[in-house]
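Q: I have 299 residues here and want to know how they pack in 3D. Can you give me a structure?
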Amino acid sequence: MQTPSSRGQGRRAWLYLLPAILIFGIFYYRPLLENAYISFFQWNMISPTMKYVGLQNYRQILTSAEMTKILGNTLLLVVLLLIFNFLLPYGFAFVLSHVIQSEKAKGFFRSAFFLPSTISLAVASIIFLWMYNPLAGPVSLVLHAFGMESPRWFKENGLVIFAIATIIGWKAFGYNLIVLVAAMASVPKELIEAAKLENASNWTIFRKIIVPMTSPTALYVFTITIIFGLQYMLVPTNMLTQGGPNQGSSNIVYIVYQYALVFFQTGKSAAFAMVCMAIYVVFLLLKSRFLDKRVHYEN
């Protein structure tokens, strides 16, 4: 049974939480509910009236071939980003932390790899547009030196996904690397030294010691690679390809922008946004169900 003092403390706690509740309610949950409401209408953002169509927007997007292509593009982008921004930084972080011995070399590589993280995605997109130029870009010159023809990176299906993934990967690689290096720095050096005394290889040390003891940070990097990666897809796609060729570079995030501000089909755009949110929720549920339990927490 609650005493008057405990009830007073509960009311005081709710009073402290009230500003945060209001901010979240106004700027997060209210727009989310409005978006869900708009998804049941047909509206071009210009007409003063909206036509109620029920679940028609959802039926049209979920049964279209376009949705299949967009989900395929998104899945391929996520896989490439997990390679560029999770697996590669994990390996490089181990090399910087426990293989390279020179502190000057470590400092140089950390700075060099982190520098692209300070550049905006718009600037990164322009840099890679120049690099992938099929006539005079650096990539083209290297391929020509080996007697190969440079493809049109942003004009061919398949290659355009890889090109966009490299832009995002270059931008986010350094931040993920620094986070993982910090996690590996917390691994007790005594364990590493004891393993080396037993003639354990670097691969054994990485697999048996580093991976279990850095798994909480690795799970964090894995999660932000997917969530932030999906958000980062919008800028290079909009600047360089506009979803082309033939929706070959469109994805579940860009399609929301495209239907709202290019096609002016706001109802379908809102429906795509709800599907995108559902994908986020499913991912977080799967993460908590299958990945969180495999993480080793020291305490």
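Q: Anything worth noting?
A: The first strand starts at residue 41 and ends at 42. The chain has 13 helices and two strands.
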